Amino acid sequence: METFRRLQNLFRARRSRISGVRGENLAARHLRSKGYVVVARNWRNPRDRREEIDLVCRDGAVLVFVEVKTRSARARVPGYYAVNGRKRRILRRVIGSYLCGLRPGPRTFRFDVVEVGWRPGGPRILHFSNVPLFRQHYRRAG
Question: Which of 5, 14, 23, 106 can pair with 63 through a Cys bridge, CB separation 3.0 to 4.6 Å?
Fold first, then answer.
């Protein structure tokens, strides 16, 4: 019985990763249709490879960091609210690391959340633009 439970959890985790990749693909397609240019996907902090930003895009002159949250129809927490305090701290670090590697840095940047909800009729995409992540007068180091 224990082996069966482990296999179930393994398949659930794999299905979740596949669903997440599909959600990111749909989010990237959605953003491109709105005129965004995808600069990077799944960019990881070189100092800590566990820290990752899903999409880095350009919206005109603005650099946009996008966290994609994929949710099933039965999800209890919407994707927007799944970007909690812990996740925000990680995102601030990884975005700061990305910005430090740019020369010259962008004049403006922002943080967006794209929620991809799997519904019986097909996916539903919600785009939350300019989500507060940094202090008002954020200055990057370096």
Answer: 106
For the entire predicted model, the pTM comes to 0.80
123: left (phi over 0), alpha (psi -120 to 50) or beta: beta
Residue 140 lies in a domain: no
Q: Both tokens of residue 107?
A: 């004049």
Identity of residue 10: L
Whether the CB-CB separation of 106 and 62 falls below 8 Å is answered with yes
Q: Which two tokens stand for residue 12?
A: 């659930």
Alpha-carbon gap, residue 35 to 110, rounded angstroms: 16
In the block, which residue shows the tokens 């995102």? 91
Q: Tell me the sheet residues that pair with 125.
A: 116
**Residue 102 maps to which CATH number?**
3.40.1350.10
Burial of 36 (0-12, 13-18, 19+ CB in 10 A): buried
